[in-house]
Amino acid sequence: MITPTPKLVIVTGLSGAGKTQALRSLEDLGFFCVDNLPPALIPKFAELCAQAASKINKMALVVDIRGGEFFNTLFEVLAELDANGIRYEILFLEASDETLVRRFKESRRRHPLSSHGEVLDVIREERNLLRELRGGAHKVIDTSGMTVKELKEEISAIFADSAAPAGLHITLISFGYKYGIPLDSDLVIDVRFLPNPYYQAELRAFTGNDPVVRDFVFKSETTEKFMAKFADFVEFLIPEYIKEGKTTLMIAIGCTGGMHRSVALANRLRDILSEKNYRITVRHRDISRV
C-alpha cells in the first residue's frame, strides 16, 4: 500500500482578511490545523506529520505578521521545504484598505503592527511587507466582498477532495467595473459592448439570473457569436493550465454594474463547462448592489 504524500497548506495574508475563518473551513475539510506557528517550526511540523502520514495527510497552518521577528525567516524556511522535497501550497488572503479598516473598527481589535490609533497606516505598512509573499502565493483570495459563508464555499471548492477528472477548480465571478476588478482574477473579460438591459425600463430591476434578462442578452447575434468564441477560448486554455500544474482558475466577467450582462454570461459559461465535467463555482459579486 502506497502512503499518500501529506498535503501542506500555508495560510497567510493581511490581518483582518479572514485567515481565522479560512483555517476553520480547512479544519471542517479534515485538515489538521495550527494557528500562528513560528516559521522555523514548519519543517519539523511537516516531518512529524509525514511520519504519521497514514493518520495525518492534510495539514494547514497560519503564518502571519503576528510572529514578529520570527516571521522574517519564512522565506528561508520555504527554501528549506523546497530543498527537502516537501510540497506545499501558499494561500494568501487579502482585502481592500476600506474593508480592513471597517473590520478593525467593528471588531475593536488592535492591528498586530499598531502602536497607535492610525489603522490605515499600519494596514498599508503590512501590505508592503507582504508584497513579495503575495507574489509567490499559489492562490490569492480577495475577501472584500465576501461573507463568511462565501469564503467557506470558496475554500471548500479549492481544497475539498474531488473526483473531477481534470483536477482543476474553476471559479466564474461576475462583477461591475464601477466597483473595481476582482484582484484575484486570472482572466478578466469585459462584456460592456453587449446590449445593456439596464436601458430597458421593464428589465432594469431584474438580474442576469432572471430568464427575461438572459433572453434579452442572448437574443443579440453579437452575444451568441462572442459566447461561442469565448467558450472555445476557455476550453482551449484549460488543458494548457492543467499541463502547467495549475489547480485553480478564476475567470472574471465584468459589465458596468455587475447585475445583468456579466451574470448572464457567467451562468452560460458555467453550463457549457459543466457539460465537460469540470468543477465550477459561480459567484455574482455585485448582483445585489444598488
From TrEMBL:
Binding site for ATP: 13-20
Residue ranges annotated for the RapZ C-terminal domain, each copy included: 169-287
Domain RapZ-like N-terminal span(s) in chain numbering: 7-160
Molecular function GO terms recorded: ATP binding; GTP binding
Protein name: Nucleotide-binding protein YvcJ
Gene: yvcJ
Keywords: ATP-binding, GTP-binding, Nucleotide-binding
Lineage of origin: Bacteria, Bacillati, Bacillota, Clostridia, Eubacteriales
Transmembrane segments: none
Gene3D superfamilies, per database record: P-loop containing nucleotide triphosphate hydrolases (3.40.50.300)
Residues reported to bind GTP: 64-67
Metal-binding as UniProt keyword: no
Domain of life (superkingdom): Bacteria
Keyword Ligase: no
